[in-house]
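Sequence only, no structure available. Ideas?
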Amino acid sequence: MLIDWFTVGAQALNFLVLVWLMKRFLYQPILHAIDGREKRIAAKLADAAAKESEAKSERDKFVQKNDEFDQQRAALLTKASEEAQTERQRLFDEARQAADALSAKRQETLLGDARKLSKTISRKTREEVFAIARKVLTDLAGASLDERIGDIFIDRLRALSDEAKVVFAKALKTASGQALLRSAFELPEGQQTMIQKVINETFSAAIQVRFETAPDLVSGVELNAGGQKIAWSIADYLSALEQSVGELLQENDQPEVKPESKAKSAPEPSKSTARPQ
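Reply:
I predicted one. Tokens follow.
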């Protein structure tokens, strides 16, 4: 069999030309298209990976923030609970203190009212008793009793202390040597003369004495000059006794009385000492 080399060469050339044409116009664009597509896919995959990484990072941040929020919420709830408990206890303590104060004030008010009532009853009783005593002494007083009171007053003048004499002498100088002697009943003339004489001897001066009757005195005599007074009367004893009884009742009204505290005995009225009027 004979080989036609020309035909073989022509076919080979045609094949090469075909291959070149196919590579030039068919395979090359396809390869470029495939490369471009692969690059786009790779870019999209890279972008997707980046987004996935970003999404994961955001998720981690969100989880962390959520945990922090939960912790803060728990801390705030605990703090709010503690503050509420503290405020509740404070309000409870204030309410209890207010209730205790109100109760104490009420008890104090009741005790004060009871003491006031007791003091009022005691004072009224004391005043009535001594008022009756004064009235009885006034009704029983007479001329003979007043004369005896005048004699006692003379004795008191003679028994004056030097200090009392000095004080009353200064009062007499202030009153320009004038004095007023008051008595519950009018003294006899002889007794007035005796009193005038004793006053002059006691203060070593000529003193003008004006005698005056004072029914308000309870069986007593008093000598006044320059704001000073020398007096003796049964009323002084009654006043001293009334004061002593009042002090005793006042001590009994105290909530606590010391064991050593004792009621003072009724002091005897001052024995003709000069004192402010």
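Confidence is low (pLDDT under 50) at residues 256-277.
Hope that gets you unstuck.
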